[in-house]
Specification:
441 residues, alpha/beta, 32% helix
Length: 441
Amino acid sequence: MATKLPSPPRVGMVSLGCPKNLVDSERILTQLRSDGYQMSADYAGADVVLVNTCGFLDSAKEESLEAIGEAIKENGRVIVTGCMGKEAETIRARFPDVLAVTGAHQYEQVVEAVHAAAPANLSPYLDLIPDAGLKLTPRHYSYLKISEGYNHRCSFCIIPSLRGDLVSRRPDAILREAEKLVAAGTRELLVISQDTSAYGIDIRKEPRMWKGREVVPHMTDLARELGRIAPWVRLHYVYPYPHVDQVIPLMADGLVLPYLDIPFQHAAPSVLKAMKRPGNDAKVLQRIHQWRDICPDIAIRSTFVVGFPGETEADFQYLLDWLDEAQLDRVGAFRFEPVEGAAANALPDPVPEEVKEERYARIMEKTAAISAAKLQAKVGRTLSVIIDEVGEEGATGRSQADAPEIDGQVFLRDAAHLAEGDIVPVVIEDADDHDLYGVPA
């Protein structure tokens, strides 16, 4: 008589917020998959739905609450986790039917809540997962989280209260995960944390052996080792500490992508002081020029906050002039939003909403013009491009200067023969404000 296999419970996932949240979602799903659960792509097929929330800004909180409400309406059996889990009372007051609420990176509590809501029966016939775990990104790129939390206390940020102080992962554990990801098809590793430059300061005296050599828990050593594992390694959320200078030669040598994601947030000294952020704009500009001398193709992306309390027109103009000098490749901007629990809420001289909007429009116009000029200078060059999607008429990819979903794209003609994950030389034929257009060389 044939063995009748049990039907495993199915879990749906709504993952909001930053890539760090996405990695948390992948870890949760990987653990649940190993515990005998299947994944559901829609509400109707799920026995329970997880909503991994973002709680950084009020607008993000509202988006999270809307997602919880939609999940309850469409499914009814909802577990909430993530950054907004710190506000369990708020969530339960609005949605008393949620099954459980847990905080950021509380993996065990989330899994326990799923076990209680939809118990699973393990089956040796069904419960196999890949060594690299389950992924929510395409096969050819993966986010690699190297630490949790961070030690900054910026006046506008509540992340330390949500995720705690810096806790670095062992370097050998990170490298082992990187190897598994590459073996499973990853071509591009996107290194993330709350503060990548600070990696290892809490475990700096704990080097580990890897492949017969000692690896110090430090951003430079880790980047060098990762560069020996994956074709592309991209560094995100890098604060401009002095030791960042040591990574630039690795970029010039091709071990790490010539790309730095640095959250400068502002340039005017008075605003940086109010933000409680370290920063010497003149010295940073000097270092940017030095980085470009060492690695001419380095792409620098950053984010800025406009309309911070006390920001004057002179401060904002200072930022625009600084951007003219810095010539950053990719820039995102945000209008300041008060966040419950942030020290900045008590600062004097709030900027009127209409002024925030006007300054936001001006900074986006400025940075779009800089981007357009930089991309136009690439026309006629041959660039290395990783392919993200292939269709009948062409393909879409990204250059080394473009991170997925946040930067620009390269649109290719005559490229239907390529495959996702291919890294190919592309002749750039045209450009607009944010994207490039070309043909495989």
